[in-house]
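pasting for ref
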Amino acid sequence: MSVGARINLARKSAKMSQQDLELRTNISQGRISLFESGQKRPTLENVKAIAEVLNVSADFILGVERDPNNQVHGLGQLSGEDTRLVVQLVRRLLRYPTQ
């Protein structure tokens, strides 16, 4: 799957339009469209901004990782805010495991 296809998949999973993503990342809708269609490749800064807004890893967008939710299944059924909170909690738990 291409970088553009992964951006498109993550955006649709987050139930966002290209315009929504534009407003949250300050990357123009036209540029997002070019990324998704494969006509242009995003910069690393673009990948980071898009991944952060869509609550996926940059590794997923770049094709290093297969699961858009970093191997946490079912997050797509949660609201955007709930997904953000779950991802934040998991990241904290991974940094500070209990004994």
